[in-house]
Design a protein that fits this description.
Blueprint lengths: L11 E7 L3 E2 L8 E9 L6 E11 L12 E4 L4 E10 H4 L5 E9 L11 E8 L5 E12 L6 E12 L5 E8 L2 E6 L1 E3 L4 E7 L3 E5 L8 E3 L3 E4 L7 E8 L17 E11 L7 E9 L2 E13 L2 E15 L3 E2 L3 E3 L3 E3 L22 E2 L5 E4 L4 E8 L7 E7 L2 E7 L1 E4 L4 E4 L2 E7 L4 E5 L5 E8 L6 E5 L13 H12 L5 H14 L1
Parallel strand pairs: 2-10, 13-19, 20-21, 21-22, 22-23, 22-24, 22-25
Antiparallel strand pairs: 1-3, 3-8, 4-7, 4-9, 5-8, 6-7, 9-10, 11-12, 11-14, 14-17, 15-16, 15-18, 18-19, 26-35, 27-34, 27-36, 28-33, 28-35, 29-30, 29-34, 31-32
Helix pairs in contact: 2-3
Length: about 500
Amino acid sequence: MDEPALPPCLLTYRFATAPAPLAIALGRTPATGVITAEALAGDDSVYCSEILVFVRIGPDPVDLSETTPDASVSTGRWAITDTRIVHGDDLGLLTGDYAQFTFDARDPADYLIDYSLVLGLTAAVNHAAGTFEYLVRETSGASRDAMIERQTSFSLEKRPPQFFLQNLVATAPEAPTVPRTAFANGAPVRLSWESNGTWFQLYLPSQTTPLYAGAATAYTLPAGLTSDTTFVLAGAMTGNSSGDTPSGGYRTLFLYEALTLGVSGADLAPRSVTATGALAGATVTAASVAAGSVATGTVTASARTTSQDLTVTGTADLHDLSTTGTTTLADATVSTHLVGATADMSLMAQPMFLPNRNAWYQAPTDGFVVGWASNQGHDLACAISASTGEVRAAATAAWFIMANPMRPVYGDASFVLPVRKGDRFVVNGPNDRDVRFVWQGLGAGVPVQVGLAAEPEAGTAEAPESAVVAFAQLIEQADGDGAARLRAALARLLEES
């Protein structure tokens, strides 16, 4: 006579995996997978003294791993008291070997589950894609005196590896597990990310040459930052392709992440200006100026001015002037527009934070909106978005607990949206989360707020794709002398969107 089935568990189990879904091993390359199961009591009082977890062991699609996983738990109130291999036939389960993990509350005072309890498994996932069983058997009840054995089974999935690039974060080198969004002027900054890609390029928006290119998933700036900066990370499943000659329409597939960092004590006014070409139509205020020629602008230097040819038709306030060519000074008011030069030049202005979320703005120039969200400590996902016309970008940030070692993982998320001069755009994000929107203009000007928008529901967003890809493609394609090419490419992109 078959034994009666056990009643279902009273605790609710919420799962997170890394990667999501779990990736199987390919070839000889190991595939480490992490499973966390949060045990929740909900609104009811639930007492629990012991939890057993079973997962199948073997090489088949219904097995998790060919070796015994490592167990962990998020709180010192519970302990891992036993790990063993058992046979399914002995437990009333399917035939096969199971890894059994026993988690016990250390003290009867901890039987009432009114605190965070998360069970973790770290496994070398086998080579067979499929669905495996995660079985939970708990001793629980509505009171200490009414606890009985209960059982619930969950199905989790393994798939072939999917290319991912995520969690671009900045930390101090001496504290690599504590993400930060702001740094002191000049303090070292360590950027790190998670990916199964094999080649990465890290860009600054004002540069067409990568700040970093390589296979590592971290990069440190020893000299730190002197002003608020937006980084764009490109990742690919390839090696260094700079010298390759593709054929047959081949193109490298990239994923992108963006991160904006603030700087306290930033150098908003330069201490010195050095240029090998001409500064034309510009206002220069600095402790010292050294240039090939300065023409048709306003120049203020409190220390030393050195140039080959100096022509200022605006206001000149110079100290310790030294020129080897013609010097022409006048006192006049002129505009500060930059006149084209034959040397390399930057089109991007200083990035700025948009003051309000859930608001409409009008773009003063062509530019980009960078959205960023962090969901530290929040169960419900944080959704952010921006749109202009028919073009829309969105991202969703989550938060979960990772095991072995047990630590929180902050689900930062970001996107990039291109905007044309004069167009209106809207940014949306919840007011109770850590959300930033940054304007990166292709020229001077401040977006003007023209209205308000409704706050979106938490946990909803549309997946970003075309805007981020387009932005990084523009960065890759631009040359040193490619100002016109960059603008033309942007115009084509916006027409196609």
